[in-house]
């Protein structure tokens, strides 16, 4: 599904990524491990088209990733990108529509996820009034509501207590069983052990 094909990237003469090469198949979770500053977030930003590599390329099903392909990708960044004054439900619908979903399908999927994650009572609450954990759940819904073929998660357990982390691991495992290809950057070794078929060290 996804192939990271010999990616290298430097900033100001400092090489952050050197000849990184691996793949992620459908129905597979691949863990991306490394210390802070190892280049994990830089690599994820290259995969999602936010940065350009110095060399190498990102392939989706054998062809270079295009802007059109990004509608098939879900991305949960480490630095959350919610609009603080927009209501939670409205915000999730907005991002789902940006991924190409029609209004009826977007509403059905977002409501399904809100119900599934116990978020129905948050629908009309501004994102800025939600706790960090609640915002994390909302960001997760934003990342998956359009049913992406490729899901990229950058430290998805940050801000979650043990119960919420277990809930999120369950949902990631369910998406894996549904056939999504998932790239997971995490410091949570329990999650990596439980979910990942292989890990990549940077």
Verbal overview:
- This protein has 202 residues and is α/β, with parallel strands linked by helices.
- It has a single domain (2-83, 132-201), classed as P-loop containing nucleotide triphosphate hydrolases (Rossmann fold).
- It is built from six helices and nine strands, in the order βββαβββαααβαβαβ.
- It has helices spanning 40-47, 88-98, 103-116, 132-144, 162-177, 189-195, and strands at residues 2-11, 14-24, 28-33, 55-60, 63-64, 73-76, 150-154, 181-185, 198-201.
- The radius of gyration is 17 Å and the shape is globular.
- The mean pLDDT is 91.
- A five-stranded parallel β-sheet has the order 6-7-8-3-9, sandwiched between helices. The chain has a four-stranded antiparallel β-sheet with strand order 2-1-4-5, with helices on one face.
- It is 34% helix and 26% strand.
């Amino acid at each position: 599904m996804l192939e990271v094909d010999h990616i290298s990237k430097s900033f100001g003469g400092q090489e952050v990524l050197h000849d990184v090469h691996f793949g992620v198949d459908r129905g597979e979770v691949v863990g991306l491990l490394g210390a802070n500053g190892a280049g994990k977030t830089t690599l994820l930003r290259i995969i999602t088209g936010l940065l350009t590599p110095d060399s190498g390329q990102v392939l989706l099903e054998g062809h270079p990733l295009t802007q059109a392909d990004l509608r098939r990708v879900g991305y949960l960044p480490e630095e959350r990108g919610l609009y603080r004054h927009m209501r939670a439900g409205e915000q999730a619908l907005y991002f789902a529509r940006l991924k190409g979903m029609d209004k009826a399908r977007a509403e059905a999927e977002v409501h399904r996820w809100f119900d599934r994650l116990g978020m129905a009572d948050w629908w009309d609450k501004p994102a800025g009034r939600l706790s960090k954990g609640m915002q994390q759940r909302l960001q997760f819904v934003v990342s998956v509501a359009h049913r992406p073929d490729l899901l990229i998660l950058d430290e998805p357990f940050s801000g979650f207590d043990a119960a919420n982390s277990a809930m999120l691991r369950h949902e990631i495992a369910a998406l894996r069983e549904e056939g999504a290809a998932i790239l997971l950057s995490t410091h949570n070794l329990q999650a990596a052990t439980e979910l990942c078929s292989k890990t990549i060290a940077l």
